[in-house]
Amino acid sequence: MNQIPQFLIAAPSSGTGKTTIARGLMGLLKRHGYHVQPFKCGPDYIDTKFHASMCGQPSVNLDAFMASEHHLQEVYTHYSKNAEVCVVEGMMGLFDGYDRDKGSCSEVARILSLPIILVVDAKSAAYSLAPLLKGFLQFSDQIRVVGVIFNRVGSPRHMSLLRQVCDDVRVECLGFLPTNKELVQTSRYLGLDFSQEDHSTELLVDEMEKHIEWQRLLELTMTERPEWMGNSLFRFPFAERLKPADNKIWVARNEESFSFIYQEHLDILRRYGEVRFFNPEENQPIPLDLDLLYLPGGYPEKHLDTLFAANQTRQSLLEFAELGGNVIAECGGMMYLCQSIVHENGEVQMVGFLPYKVSIRQKERKMSLGYRQLTIDGKRLHGHEFHYSQFIGDIPTSAVQVYNAKGDSVSSPFIKKKNVWASYTHLYWGL
């Protein structure tokens, strides 16, 4: 099969319902027997969890700042090779990037030659959406918007007015979702809430079945299956030290406190040896003969008492790091390696390898968000940072200067101690 339906779901701005529509389409197509491969533009870890729950397989990130065009093409080709439909959820507004439209989901659509389905929030608007849609349709000749789905439509009369808009600007209307509070996904302080079971899934798919012209959508987005050739390059900490072989690699993973992991990173690690997962909340020591320990981010601050109670795990991690074990610790993983995490009612001891305190108290709470780049051992690495916690007391000295996407220096430290690399930055390992 040389052609398959593949498309990118975008919107004029954040908060329009991209994730709801993307999840609904994934669930609807899966209901009809399609093998759906989900993707997510940008560095987001949370939307990919929703995708995976709908499709029954991991969602893959596509980021035009952290990876080269060639790498994006190779990643997309690799993970879409067995798919019957590829659904890519965008981020923010269609043209919102780190520098004008650089790094935006429109750039991802251009790089991958993906048609775009535009999701438009129709609440409290009707024919005024005509100039908005016309602008998005005509702004760039490097992308193709092939259809529109309206969200939060108030009535059949409202929908008839919106269809007139599409007729006048000459774009296909592929349906709508009516206003329904039960379809609104709750949020938490680092994004959408994935810790609660979503009871609205079946309702969402039922509504998509009723109101979305999904078969026409598949017809409009039928395009050539990608066949980019070449080897996808990557670079991760200790890659040169760990030659591909039978290395023992352990990765912390559970539902919440250690859960921010790119699927591609796990596949890269598997090239280097056996990957095993462990849960730091369980009171079991890790072996000291590991070749690599990976502590990804998540919400460890939500499980402080459980992490503290797992004393055997913490002590074995401390011993492993002190003995010179190779450790990658990102954001929440770095916080876990610190002396303690301070909260409103006191502080809780963590592993203690890094002699620093991290506060999640309201008075120190400050959002740090954005792309990051740094050079280590002559190698340029890219990543992303998003957190509210902050170091208090002794502030770590950064081993290297960290910069944002535009090359401006930022104060976020990158810590190297023995063979531990730790930072708030979630590094991306693809080149």
Would you kindly provide a written description of the structure presented here, covering whatever features stand out?
- The protein has 431 residues and is α/β, with parallel strands linked by helices.
- The chain folds into two domains: 222 residues, P-loop containing nucleotide triphosphate hydrolases (Rossmann fold, 3-Layer(aba) Sandwich), CATH 3.40.50; 182 residues, Class I glutamine amidotransferase (GATase) domain (Rossmann fold, 3-Layer(aba) Sandwich).
- It contains twelve helices and 25 strands.
- Strands 1, 2, 3, 4, 5, 6, 7 and 10 form an eight-stranded mixed beta sheet that branches. Strands 12-11-13-14-24-23 form a six-stranded mixed beta sheet. Strands 16-15-17-20 form a four-stranded mixed beta sheet.
- α1 runs parallel beside α2, α1 packs across α7 and α5 packs parallel to α6.
- The protein is globular, with a radius of gyration of 23 Å.
- The two termini are 30 Å apart.
- About 3% of the residues have low confidence.
Distance between the ends: 30 Å
Which homologous superfamily in CATH is the superfamily of the largest domain? P-loop containing nucleotide triphosphate hydrolases
Overall CATH class of the largest domain: Alpha Beta
Structure annotation, total helices: 12
* Shape field: globular
Low-confidence stretches: 187-197
Mean pLDDT: 93
For the CA atoms, what is the radius of gyration?
23 Å
Could you tell me the strand content as a percent range? 25-35%
Tell me the major beta sheet.
Answer: 8 strands, mixed
Helix content: 25-40%
Q: In CATH terms, what is the architecture of the largest domain?
A: 3-Layer(aba) Sandwich
**Total domains, how many?**
2
CATH topology of the largest domain: Rossmann fold
Number of strands: 25
Structural class: alpha/beta
